[in-house]
Design a protein that fits this description.
This is ATP/GTP-binding protein. Keywords: Signal. There is one protein chain. This protein is mainly beta. It folds into two domains: about 140 residues, no CATH class; about 160 residues, no CATH class. The protein contains two helices and 21 strands. Strands 4, 5, 12, 14, 15, 16, 18 and 19 form an eight-stranded mixed sheet that branches. The longest helix is centred in the first third of the chain and has 12 residues. The protein is rod-shaped, with a radius of gyration of 31 Å. The N and C termini lie far apart (about 90 Å).
Length: about 325
């Protein structure tokens, strides 16, 4: 016991001790290792996850995942152990505890003991600190600390996201529910709100980790058919009959925020219509458990749109009946 106390005094007297260099990951970056905060075992790589089940077909990878001490990023594992956000230490499993109370008190079966290298500051991305004499003790029955990334996934899975309903003009304005070649189509979300266009926030505690998730829509991509895609930053501007009052079709203005003009009819498309779909791309940024990250999601809804051209009308100068010229139905 005396030797242990003397060793403690020697460590404290030495002041702040720079952390030994961590085992570098690929490319010399942070260690590519996610360490279980209870067992200290490396369980998976910290990396982009192209197979994330929450991505819902999204194209952006999970990013900014790492370990954080007082808001500053630190290596998740070093020669002094694995980072534990709850204690602010790098922990290494040991067989028995070091404690000023001695080893006389009974511990429940399954209790785990860890040597603690306490972080005092982070300078230039490198933690600095001292080895603490008192061990970190985790008794069975205490809330198990869940991997913050897994907790974040579960919290995000409970958030209510809905694919937006689509507004199109003059599709919704015309009696025949058709668009017309070279006449502006306005596109907008008819039900903007927390679930469709955001923002949306949720805070919950799982497995001893409190997660706060904030979801925002990055963009809405409109696939107009025929390979045409229009990217809009917001929900779009609703079209009303007042926007076309007293105007010919050629004088209808383009949408100020989200619009498209078709250059050919949908006659040759499957079912004679363009399949118009809008995909809302979300990013959910989460923080908790000394970590943070981003989970991309996307949600899509589609509607059919028939696009025709105006049939030319010729009036016989001699007063004969009006003749309507029907364009040939060619798709070549």
């Amino acid at each position: 016991m005396l030797r242990a106390c003397l060793a403690t005094l020697a460590v404290v007297a030495s002041g702040v001790i720079p952390l030994p260099a961590a085992a570098a990951g690929p490319g010399g970056g942070p260690p590519a290792c996610d360490v279980d905060v209870v067992t200290g075992q490396c369980r998976m790589e910290i990396s982009e996850d192209p197979d994330d089940p929450l991505k819902e077909g999204g194209t952006e990878p999970v990013s900014r995942t790492g370990c954080f001490f007082e808001g500053r990023q630190v290596p998740c594992r070093t020669a002094d152990g694995f980072f534990d956000a709850a204690s602010g230490c790098y922990l290494t499993p040991v067989d028995s505890p070091s404690t000023l109370f001695g080893d006389g008190r009974p511990y429940k079966p399954g209790t785990k003991f860890y040597r603690c290298w306490k972080i005092l500051d982070v300078v230039g991305g490198r933690p600095e600190g001292i080895e603490r004499f008192e061990s970190v003790i985790r008794e069975p029955g205490e809330p198990a600390t869940m991997d913050p990334r897994e907790a974040a996934r579960q919290v995000v899975a409970t958030m209510n996201f809905v694919a937006p309903h689509l507004g199109l003009s003059p599709y919704v304005q015309s009696a025949t529910r058709e668009g017309i070649v070279n006449v502006p189509i306005w596109m907008w979300v008819t039900d903007p709100g927390q679930t469709t266009t955001g923002p949306q926030t949720k805070r919950a505690t799982l497995g001893g980790v409190t997660i706060e998730a904030n979801g925002t829509v990055d963009r809405i991509e409109w696939s107009m058919g025929g390979g045409k895609v229009v990217t809009c930053k917001g929900a779009g501007t609703p079209f009303s009959r007042a926007d076309a009052a007293g105007k010919s079709l050629k004088d209808i203005a383009d949408s100020p925020t989200c619009g498209h003009r078709y250059q050919k009819t949908s006659r040759c498309e499957k079912s004679g219509t363009y399949q118009v779909s809008a995909t809302a791309y979300w990013n959910v940024h989460w923080t908790g458990g000394g970590m943070e990250g981003d989970i991309p999601l996307d949600f899509t809804r589609s509607v059919p749109l028939r696009v025709t051209d105006l049939r030319p009308v010729l009036v016989d100068p001699n007063g004969d009946p009006v003749k309507v010229i029907t364009p040939p139905r060619r798709c070549a």
